[in-house]
Design brief:
The protein has 398 residues and is an alpha+beta fold. It has two domains: 144 residues, 2-Layer Sandwich (Beta-Lactamase), CATH 3.30.450; 226 residues, Substrate Binding Domain Of Dnak, Chain:A, Domain 2. It is 71% helix and 9% strand. The chain has eleven helices and five strands; from the N terminus they run ββαααβββαααααααα. β4 and β5 form a beta hairpin. α6 runs antiparallel to α7, α7 packs antiparallel against α9 and α8 packs antiparallel against α11. It is elongated and about 95 Å long.
């Protein structure tokens, strides 16, 4: 069933998933009459090719009061199918689902994942929960850290693709959040690399201490140096544990903000679309406008609140990164003393171990410099987002 990129549609259900209302595009695309839709389960339009795991994830989220986005294949009355990207948000006594036409590369990947998941469900007689678990594992292998990351990348990608299709300029807030998502991904990758670097070299100071012990009194100085290095490296390890968790929190907060902002934009548009539709006797137009306006205002406010949270998380993360950077400089001083002593002893094993320490320290230092630079860029873009959000809000209200 065809519908255009310029068309958005919505439906509202009660808490049990029974259809309470929608707009004319929803009714037209479904090909059911309002009498056939109202009061019926929303799965009336569900296509048989949809994996059960997707709906398990959807219901798991919205029952917790959280919004969710998902690619959904629906079926019209005559058996034709149509794909949507659905944004489902909890409302009073039910749920609101706003849909747009998908076309991005993320959508193409989702279709492949759905086909594989359907096959797995068929072959293994999976429960919906197990199916959802397999889907999450597949998304993780594709580079999405969790489902929130996937649904956010999907929504941002669909808005950008839709704007290209319609030859309209994308709101600056969406563009800035797209940059933030890319930068936060790099931040998390670098934080992961730095943490893994520590673990790959964590036994070098101990090996140095053992080697120094084998040298007896001759190795006393190198033993002391190695012990100091080991103590400082342990401080860095403790710092890295909190630092990595902070990096994940920054990434999650940015991801949440991008989804909230994009949702508010789509809800703004669907409210405008519905306001211009002809009134029908089956739908209480004023009641639905009130629902749409409440959701639009709620998610717009939550998007702004999230931007402030992002700045707070970035400040905390920057403090932790700067502390690890300081400790890394301390490692450099101790390593140089060790290099001098190893050279004096002319011991090839010690020299090799000191070289390993040098590689570790330089890799760590380079990574932390990169992280602080990324953090600065994230901070700058967050500030631009706050400014742009105010400008976009004024444009929307005009």
């Amino acid at each position: 069933m065809k519908f255009g990129f310029d068309e958005l549609f919505f439906s509202r259900t009660d808490s049990r998933g029974k259809i309470k209302s929608g707009n004319t595009v929803f009714q037209r695309v479904s090909q059911y009459s309002w009498d056939e839709l109202l009061g019926k389960p929303h799965n009336t339009i569900r296509h048989k090719d949809m994996p059960r795991g997707v709906f398990w994830l959807l219901w798991d989220q919205i029952r917790k009061g959280l919004p969710i986005g998902a690619y959904v294949k629906n079926s019209s009355k005559n058996g034709q199918y149509y794909w949507v990207y659905a944004i489902v948000t909890p409302i009073e006594n039910g749920y609101l689902s706003v849909r747009l036409k998908p076309s991005s590369a993320v959508f193409e990947g989702a279709q492949e994942q759905y086909q594989a998941l359907l096959q797995a469900e068929s072959d293994g007689d999976l429960t919906p929960a197990k199916s959802a678990e397999i889907l999450l594992a597949s998304l993780n292998r594709l580079g999405f850290r969790n489902y929130q990351s996937f649904m956010t990348q999907g929504l941002i990608s669909e808005i950008l693709a839709r704007d290209r299709m319609l030859s309209v300029e994308t709101l600056s807030t969406v563009r800035f959040f797209h940059e933030l998502l890319l930068e936060s991904g790099k931040l998390l990758e670098t934080a992961t690399r730095v943490t893994e670097t520590y673990h790959s070299f964590r036994f070098v100071p101990l090996n140095l201490i053992i080697q120094a012990g084998q040298l007896g009194n001759t190795g006393a100085a190198i033993g002391t140096i190695s012990n100091n290095y080991s103590l400082l490296a342990e401080e860095i390890r403790l710092g890295l544990d909190g630092f990595f968790e902070a990096a994940k929190k920054v990434s999650d907060t940015i991801c949440e903000g991008a989804f909230l902002l994009s949702t508010s934009i789509i809800q703004q548009e669907i409210a405008e679309v519905f306001a211009g539709e002809a009134k029908t006797s089956e739908i209480d137009h004023a009641c639905e406008m009130a629902h749409l306006d409440r959701q639009r205002g709620l998610y717009a406010a939550r998007a702004v609140e999230n931007l402030v949270n992002i700045q707070r998380e970035l400040e905390e993360f920057a403090r932790g990164a700067a502390e690890i950077k300081r400790l890394t400089l301390g490692l450099a001083a101790i390593r140089i003393m060790g290099k001098v002593e190893a050279g004096r002893l002319a011991n090839s094993v010690l020299n090799d171990l000191i070289t390993d320490l040098e590689t570790f320290q330089q890799t760590l230092s380079t990574g932390m410099t990169e992280i602080l630079s990324l953090n600065s860029a994230l901070w700058q873009h967050t500030g631009q987002l706050l400014d742009a959000y105010g400008d976009d809000t004024k444009v929307a209200a005009a």
